[in-house]
Sequence to fold (540 residues):
Amino acid sequence: VVSFPVTFICAGNRRKEQNMTKKTIGFNWGAGGVANSVWTGVRLCDVLKTLGISKVSKQERYVHFAGPLGELPAGETGEYGTSIDMGWALDQERDVLLAFKQNGEWLTPDHGFPLRTLLPGVIGGRMVKWLSTIKVMPEPSKNHYHFFDNRVLPPHVDADLATKEGWWYKPEYMINHINLNSAMFEPAHNSHFKLAGEKAHPTMRVSGYAYVGGGLKVIRAEISLDGGHSWEIADLSRPEDEISEARGTDKHWCWAWWETEVDAARLKGCKEICVRAVDSNQNLQPALLTWNVMGMMNNCLFRVKVHELEDGSGVWFEHPTQPANEIGGWMTEDAGRYVRETSVEAAPGKTGTAPNRPVAAVWGSGGSAPGAATAQTTAQGSGQIALQTSAAGKLVKSTEDYLKNGVPMSDVKKNNSDESAWVVIKDRVYDCTPYLDDHPGGSSSIMLVAGQNGTEDFEAVHSKKAWDMLEDYFVGALRKDGSEAKEEEEVEDEDELGATGGFLKPHKMQRLPLVEKIIVNHDVRVFRFGLPKPDMKLGL
Fold:
């Protein structure tokens, strides 16, 4: 049994930046799809040797891993599976584990209890949770998710072309080892820093993380205050170094943290702060984003925009995006939006004196630095709706009043059945009834939001193709008359519930009393709720 620290990274980390450029088929990861833990387990190579497998052969060429049957909707078996080369599995230096503990405690259900695979330096999608089967086979896995997940295809390949031309099955586009990346968590998005007055500090802290896969280590992190024209080195912390030395290996499986402080005077007139990392193979992050259909492995320079506060007393900071469907970011349609009420003060530097280091690198002379993009250029093509309000969609009918004056939310709510299913997407009303039978996710996915605002659900999972298809079902813009500018959650009171019998009501939010809370462990709780009245039926 062995224990060592490993950083987990989702291949979709920072995907939302790609989605703001052009919609991928993946949901909106921000820059937080990364974390570090100490893992405990047995080495796969030791298990294989115990079973008599100590070298690669034609019959013992790959090791297959799979989770529970019926776990997922796609594929013949519904299990999540993948495979690795036998040479990889037998290499003790690669540290492949069958893990059963995390940070000294037994795995929790959400982290793969009772057993999961751990492949250090590899994307999270190659590590199977709730491990159910291990097989030694002559061929690689044919599991659905081994092919249709965790691929980086060329930028010209969209989902349709990938299926038509068989790109999903080309082994060279499979991703395993994580690429070099870095991001900034200080100054935080929407934070501010005073340059004058009592609250002014001489320096501001700038910090973040950097990581790389394949057992390499991050050797340098640099920041730029002039759009990537010149770069200066930040302080780098790698707590794993002592562990690697003690283990007698050159493999590094953990992220690094970088930090520096910047003279406050340099922030006045500064337009952006960006960061890049360098690894032990001298790889450097690219300046520009390269789009791919799954939105994976995005590792372009992480850029934080700097804006002057309205009163001229300081500056505020804007990250490229916010995670999931949170509002904000210079790459989004909310670019330049400062929310004073939720803004916090950016942290001052630790010492109050900025390091006096020479410039580490300079891009050419004159002109714009590579990749100095603006919100206007990067927000284009992000799958937003083209606002065409003069005519109804070609597959549905509308009225002159709807097209001219908009559709009242009260009318939308009435159309909540499979005979007439209307939804609101970004303040535009669509009649989805003709598409119910053709929807890839089934009609139930549409019916869940029929008669309601479905923007959040639609934005999370749909591609540019789906956004374009919407216009064929356009009924009219949502009418804004004050009382219906925003759909309110409806909550029935107890008297009304009692009068109607069953508790559950389609499309209505209702309150339940909390009866009991059970603390299972540090991050798992069981909540038990009761019905408002003891004689009431649930109504399923």
Q: What stands out?
A: The longest helix spans residues 240-247. Confidence is low (pLDDT under 50) at residues 372-387, 483-492. The chain is about 15% helix and 25% strand.
